[in-house]
Design brief:
The complex is a heterodimer of chains A (456) and B (347). Chain A is of the alpha/beta class. Chain A is 48% helix and 12% strand. Chain A folds into 2 domains: 52-167 and 331-378, D-Maltodextrin-Binding Protein, domain 2 (3-Layer(aba) Sandwich), CATH 3.40.190.10; 168-330 and 390-455, 3-Layer(aba) Sandwich (D-Maltodextrin-Binding Protein, domain 2), CATH 3.40.190.10. Classes of the chains: A alpha/beta (456), B mainly alpha (347).
């Protein structure tokens, strides 16, 4: 019994000692005394510049292909030359990380120092204007000027929040090997202006002969917009406000999508198989299961890596409608976030990344269409050997010049994401029979009105 | 001659078994903590009196509950009366009952297509359907399984573990496993094709998707409720069955006359828990179908999540209003269940 009391007391003392230790404030270590003879020649220790600590910056990033790897490589070199800055890349999923979580983080003031984003209009109010921290803002205006307009929180603003990591153009890819196996001629080999219906007919023939899927389009209103503009969609009324009810061109394209889902032309899993989120159809194409895939230039690097020369794939010019043969411009930008505590360090990283030499290497290795006007003019020596890759890059580069003016307006519209998401989700309800097309278009308009009213 | 004193052989040191040492160690910790608490509690007891001491002991838990449950709940109610897409309450304009008005803006409440917030009502009716069939199916199956496992059958412990195993899995893991089984090129279709049957794309057909969502949910959760019911069954005295047997009652009569009435309190707990859990369905279905095809498996919680966080204009007010409506429905359901349980107790 005595022993138990002894051990209890010892344990109590130990706990007490631990609590005391945890609660005690550790006094700062005294500064080492300066040698007496140094006092005359050197500044006192208290006035000496404090040794600079390493500034840690975080980038929220997503990948389509190898760009994260290339960025890391470039930043490693930057860090070697700038040991006072360390950059951490937080790679996240595009749909859940960039589209859903990042805006909440930004709204809560808990965002990263920099982020790679695509919804430039929606995120613009969280961007930091780097202009006061840049050594040469004119360089940015000269090389990124047109794209900076997409990043302005206020109309007519002149902020420099970041740069385009890539300029993108939507457009289709085909699996030429499947066409050859099916003995069907590739429509774009014999005509510069192939309609959507002609592509659909050809793709269906190939799919029937090879046991594959004919067509797929990423589950995205942005992807749908190019074809819709080609079919004559107007998207806006005379006041520049989105107006879909009565837009015959939009309805025509939507009807084509409905028909293609009803007759099995489209891979149903992509649009019908999910609700409420973006869905890419790239895995079907990479696996050789798809004849015609409506995606965009950002997939070139992905296909270069993941398909290589396993089969003949290539980009083809955007199909035509009665009004145009256009895709949609777009892109991703690396932007500074206005809650950063280290704007100077962010500006240094940005200036390094946007230097012509570094940008050239970034675009060359990622196979992205340059969003740097100087490099676009000079041309980037893409690091790819595959003829499929080179041909696709040249097709998409040519598509940039063929984009309809409305496509640019739509991309620059700050609430375009609200519009695109309403198109995507309501159209899916038509495919499943929950709504008629007219009801869906009416619902799209209501969603857009409510969304814009809420965002303003 | 003096006799040489005989030396008694030394006793071997007392061996303390390991479990006793471990027990002793924990006792010491317990004693230490209690002593410290005693030091703290005694002056407080002197100050506030012994009668109020229970409040002092529940205070820490109450604070945690208030901070992490009560406060967010009240904040959520406040948010439901605000508009805009700003995150912080001070930046949000007060809009009164506008969000509720929009939710209930329907020509016909039973036809989601006539409602302004049609996705909420689709989610609402999908959830109601899910609750009825998932809870109904699960309670019946759990009951049957518990009755079977309560009998002395061969491998009883093994089967108990087998039925409980899915409960240990994360809902996301459950959904991914079943997705691999059910997708177009999944295990089940491979089996169907190998048997010469047509491939079925389960997640593109609304009826199949709903069926699998309910089936998988029952599969994943049934073990937990089986275990609760099993404990209830084991608490029923054996002699009651023996008496019934002597009176000539058959098995069905014993089940109806003894098992069901005595199991009713346990069954009520199972019902309340499973209904609450069913109404909250989200994660598993989100991974499995994403709410598709179309909106066939969109449930209210997914609507709330998407309205607040996934849409580009974060409608926190609307999402909060929807969650308040859901909370009220859940409260009413629970009260009805409890009342029904009380009446059956009286009867």
């Amino acid at each position: 019994m005595l022993r138990i009391r002894y051990v209890t007391l010892t344990t109590l003392l130990l706990i007490f000692a631990l609590v005391l230790t945890a609660c005690t404030t550790v006094p700062a270590a005294p500064a080492p005394a300066a040698p007496a003879d140094a006092a005359a020649t050197e500044a006192p220790a208290a006035e000496a510049p404090a040794p600079e600590g390493v500034t840690e910056l975080r980038i929220t990033w997503y990948n389509d292909g190898n760009e994260g790897e290339v960025l890391r490589d470039l930043l490693d070199r930057f860090e070697a030359d700038n040991p006072d800055i360390k950059v951490i890349i937080d790679t996240v999923d595009y749909a859940s990380g960039i589209q859903q979580t990042l805006p909440i983080q930004l709204e809560a003031g808990e965002g990263p120092d920099m982020a790679r984003v695509t919804q430039l209009g929606i995120v613009a109010k969280y961007m930091l204007d780097l202009r006061p921290y840049l050594s040469n803002p004119e360089y940015w205006e000269a090389n990124f000027g047109p794209f900076l307009k997409w990043m302005q929180a206020e109309p007519g603003g002149n902020a420099i929040p970041g740069f385009m990591t890539q300029l993108t153009v939507t457009g289709p890819f085909i699996n030429r090997t499947l066409f050859e196996q099916a003995g069907v001629a590739v429509p774009s080999d014999s005509s510069d202006q192939v309609t959507w219906q002609e592509w659909a007919d050809a793709a269906r023939q190939v799919a029937e002969a090879t046991g594959t899927f004919a067509m797929a389009m990423d589950r995205s209103g942005h992807r749908l917009a190019g074809p819709a503009v080609s079919m004559g969609a107007k998207y806006f009324n005379d006041e520049g406000y989105p107006a879909l009810v009565g837009d015959q061109g939009f309805k025509d394209m939507a009807q084509l999508m409905v028909d293609w889902h009803a007759d099995g032309t489209m891979v149903p899993e992509v649009w019908i198989g999910s609700a409420g989120s973006y869905q890419a159809a790239a895995p079907y194409f990479i696996n050789g299961q798809l004849v015609f895939y409506m995606a965009g230039s950002w997939q070139v690097g992905n296909f270069n890596t993941n398909i290589g020369d396993a089969f003949d794939w290539e980009a083809v010019p955007n199909p035509c409608g009665p009004a145009a043969c256009t895709g949609m411009p777009g892109g991703a930008a690396l932007v500074a976030i206005n809650t950063t505590k280290h704007p100077e360090a962010v500006a240094r990283v940005m200036e390094y990344l946007t230097s012509e030499e570094v940008m050239n290497e970034f675009y060359a290795r990622t196979l992205f269409i340059p969003g740097h006007l100087g490099l676009a003019e000079k041309g980037v020596d893409f690091q790819a050997e595959l003829p499929q890759t080179m041909k696709s890059l040249s097709v998409f580069s040519a598509e940039v010049g063929k984009l309809a003016p409305l496509a640019y307006d739509l991309q620059a519209y700050p609430f375009n994401t609200i519009l695109f998401n309403a198109n995507r989700d309501r159209l899916t309800q038509v495919f499943t029979g929950e709504l008629t097309l007219d009801e869906a278009i009416q619902r799209m308009q209501e969603d857009i009105d409510a969304g814009i009213a809420g965002a303003q | 001659m003096t006799a040489k004193p005989q030396r008694t052989p030394a006793l071997p040191p007392e061996r303390v078994p390991l479990h006793a040492r471990i027990g002793h160690f924990f006792y010491l910790i317990y004693a230490g903590v209690m002593t410290v608490l005693g030091w703290l509690a005694e002056p407080i007891q002197r100050l506030i009196g012994a009668a109020r001491m229970p409040y002092f002991f529940v205070l820490p838990n109450l604070l945690i509950f208030g901070l992490f449950v009560l406060f967010p709940m009240l904040l959520n109610i406040y948010y439901s009366f605000t508009g805009g897409n700003n995150l912080f309450p001070q930046d949000r304009p007060f809009v009164g009952g506008q969000n509720y008005q929009q939710i209930f803006n329907c020509a016909n409440l039973f036809d989601p297509a006539t409602c302004r917030e049609d996705r909420f009502w689709r989610g609402f009716y999908n959830t109601a359907f899910f609750v009825v069939f998932q809870v109904g199916g699960m309670v019946v199956l759990a009951m049957l399984t518990a009755v079977v496992l309560n009998r002395s059958i061969w491998g009883r412990s093994f089967f108990r573990s087998v039925f409980f195993y899915p409960v240990l899995l994360s809902p996301v893991v459950v959904a991914l496993i079943w997705k691999w089984i059910l997708q177009r090129d999944g295990l089940l279709n491979a089996l169907l094709v190998s048997l010469g049957m047509e491939r079925i794309v389960f997640f593109l057909n609304a009826n199949w998707a709903v069926f699998w969502v309910i089936f998988i949910s029952i599969w994943a959760q049934m073990g937990f409720y089986t275990l609760i019911l099993l404990a209830g069954l084991q608490s029923i005295p054996r002699d009651m069955y023996e008496a019934a047997d002597m009176d000539g009652a058959n098995r069905w009569q014993s089940f109806r006359g003894i098992t069901l009435p005595l199991l009713m309190p346990t069954l009520l707990v199972v019902l309340v828990l499973s209904v609450i859990r069913a109404v909250q369905v989200f994660d598993q279905v989100w991974v499995l179908t994403g709410g598709g095809p179309g909106t066939a498996t969109v449930y209210v919680v997914q609507y709330i999540y998407e309205t607040a966080f996934a849409n580009q204009t974060r409608q926190f007010g609307m999402a909060s209003a929807a969650s308040v409506v859901l909370g009220i429905v859940l409260l009413v359901l629970t009260l009805i269940q409890l009342r029904a349980g009380r009446q059956s107790d009286i009867a």
